[in-house]
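S., here's the first fold you wanted:
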Amino acid sequence: MLNNMIIRLLVYYAAWLLALSGIFYLFPQILYYVAQERKRIFVAKSLEFGADTVPFPLGNIEEGVARLIDPAHTIPVMVALVLAFGVTLPVTWVYRWTRPRKKYSQSFAHTLLVIPTSITLVVFLVKGSLALAFSLAGIVAAVRFRTSLEEPIDAVYMFMAIGIGLAAGTQLTTVAYLASLVFVAIALGVWKSNFGARPAVISGWTIVYPEKSAQVSEAGDTAIPTPKPCDAQIEVHATNVEEVQKATDLILNSNTKRWQVSDVINNEDGTVVVVFDVWFKKSVKSLSLVRNIEESGKGYINDVRMRGSNS
C-alpha cells in the first residue's frame, strides 16, 4: 500500500505532524526556546546568556562549550535543521516520481535534499547582522557557484527548497510544513493531469478542444499533428516497479529511439505489470530486446511480453 504515492505522502506528513505535536506537548519548553529565538534581532544577542551579558571572547573554550550545551540556543537550531530536512524529503520524492527518466538528475535530487539545511544555517548566521550578510554575499560572489538548470520546473523545485530553508531558519515551522505539503500536492496534481500537454486551438473566439482540432483546418488554423504510433508495446511482469526500472532503463535507453511508460497495472496478488511504448532503432531486433530485458531482470522479472511488432 505504501507504494501508492498519495498514501505514502499522507502517512509521512501525518507522522511528522503527530511527532511534532507529541514532542511539543511533552516538552513545552521547546516552544518557548523557539519563540525566543524568533524574537532575536542581532547575532551577538543570540549568543548571550542574559540581556546585559557581553559576548565571550572566541578564545575562551569553557564559555564556548557552555554556549554549545545551553538549550536556549542549541534547541532552536536543531529544530530548524531537522525540520528543514524532514519537510524537504517529500519534495525530492515528488521530483523523482514525476520527472521523465531521461531528464532526471540524481545530483539535483541530492542538492534539493541538502540545500534547505544550508539555507537554514545561513539564516542563523546573518540574522539581524548587516555586516555578516554583506560578508556572505562577498564570499558567494568570490566562489561563484554555478549550475545549469535545463528545465524551468527544476528552478521551481530549487526555489521551493530555498524557501523551506528560509522558513525553518526564521523559526516559522508552520510555514515550512504547509509550504511543503501544498507544493507536493500541486506538483503531483499538475503532473497527473498532464496540464498543458497540447496547445489550445482557437477558431475565431471559440476554443476547440484537441479531439475536435482536426475539424478546424478549413478555418485557417493549423491542426495539431497526430503523433506517430509506437512500434510496439512491451509488458514487464514483476514484483514491484523498482525492479522493472532496474531491468529496463539502461536497455531501453541504448536500444530504442525513445520510449515511455504507457501504463502501470497493480494486480491483486501484489505484482505489477509495467507497459512500455517503444520506438525501435533500425539495427535492433524486437526479440533480442525482450531477451535482453529478461536476462537483465533474471531472478526478479516474472515475464516479458511484446505486442504489435513483427520483427
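And the second, which I think is the more interesting of the pair:
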Amino acid sequence: MEYFELVDAEGNPIGMTKERSAVHRDGDLHGGSHIWVIGAKETDGSFPILLQKRRADKDSFPGCLDVSCAGHLEAGETFLSTAIREMKEELNLDVQEKDLIYLFKKQLSGNYRFHGKPFLNREVNFVYLLAPSFPLDAMHFQEEEIEELIWKNSTELNKELLAGNDAYCIDYWELEELIRHVERMP
C-alpha cells in the first residue's frame, strides 16, 4: 500500500501522509516529480522527447502517452529523491542529483473518471530535465507501469497537444515550458 506525502501549495510537506486511493478519492494536495528525458537538439532547434505509454490497467490515465517518468512523493521523500527513485523503478536508469536539472514547479488539478470511478487529482509537481551525457543502453521500462516507450519530436508533440490530441495526458503549459528551457540551453 502506497502512502503519499501531503503538501501545501508550495510543495512543502504538511506532516501528514495518506493512502494513495484515499488521496485521489478526497482530492488532497500531494507532491509529484516529473522527469523529461530528451535527446540532442536537431539543427532546427527541435529535439527528441521520450514518452511513456501508460498501461491500460493503470488506475489513472490508462493507455495515454505521458511524460518520460513521473511519480508521487512517498512518506519522507523529497521531490529530488522521488525523481531519482522513479528513474530507477520505471526506466532502470541510475541517475544522480547532478544528472537532473530542476526546471520549475507546477500545480495541477482535475476531476476525472477512470474505470467508472471518480479520481480527484491535486498535485504540486517539481519538473526536472534529464539530458543524459551517458548512453541510455541500460534503459528498459517497468512492465507493471508502462506499455511502451516512444521518442517524439518536440515540434510534432507541441502541435499534437495544441490540436487537442487526446492520446496524451501531458499538460500543454508544462511542455511549452520544457521547450522554452531547452531552447535556452547551449
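Why I say that: The mean pLDDT is 95. The beta strands are 3-7, 13-19, 29-37, 48-54, 65-66, 69-72, 101-114, 117-130, 146-153.

Talk tomorrow,
H.
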